[in-house]
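Re: the 340-residue chain
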Amino acid sequence: MANKLRIGLLGAGRIGQLHGTNIQNFVPTAEVVVVADPFMNEKTEAWAASIGIPATTKDPEEVFANPDVDAVFICSSTDTHADFIIKAAQAGKHIFCEKPIHTDISKIKEALAAVEAAKVKLQVGFVRRFDKNHKAVRDTVASGKLGAPYVVKVTSRDPAGPPMSYVAVSGGIFTDMMIHDFDMVRYLSGSDVVEVSTVGAVLTDPGYAEYDDVDTAIVTLKFANGAIGVIDNCRTAPYGYDQRVEVHCEKGAVQDNNALENVAFISTADGVESAKPTYFFLERYNDAFVAEEIAFVDAINNDTEVPVNGIDGLEPVRIAIAAKKSLKEGRPVKLSEIEG
């Protein structure tokens, strides 16, 4: 079709290539016209060419300066996100940014101010909101048919822990893993978090302790609407990627379950067997990645609000900081204690 939204992709690692491939194959109203990555090499150039991206560069400044780029997808390392948001906004380009915007609240606020000043759109990549099952839970709660929410529960466990080289720079479990769940509880409850209390332990690998981190954690939460919540995370679940949510409400409850590798059930005299959950996030959430990309492009093309805005990017970082503070100090922490 004519007049496709022209996108510059910043970062061509695993998540950048996922977004680039999805846009080229599954988002007919947009196209990637250039990809920038400081580690651009022949393999990455071949990937770009194979999906019809006409230009590559090692310099992101070329993307910001390119008049043929309408919007950017920021898929680079976390420490670049806020600065790239500011530069894109100043160049008048709409922005999709992978989470988190930054781990420093002041940098996030600086980036959001630049977006507001430029009157461009910013969507933050909390992809789990676009999972059809999680969305069905949220839509049921938001409809009011079950009455007021009482308890929000989120379980998130990875099939295997990350390399320690990642743990060394990730900011810890609350910033790199549970951040998705902090967004999810706001999404499901329709309310902001006002207080958190954390317990955590090193149970799967003693290496986490070397980086002042834990591999297993439970966070309880209080919401402004009166509901309470609980999130449990573990870095290692040998049975697969465990992703479940539930909201118990005044008139009933709504929950979803894991996506399985297949839905066949084997029944014998020994019992009933089913497949394991899908292995990891690429298998579990790829349809959701496509849905969030389409939502971003539609918001620009139709001049509507993005479904996950800058405040939605800020609040989970504040909750993560509060959760880590609670663990370290052994007490509940109010969100009013955290810069906002």
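The chain is about 40% helix and 25% strand.
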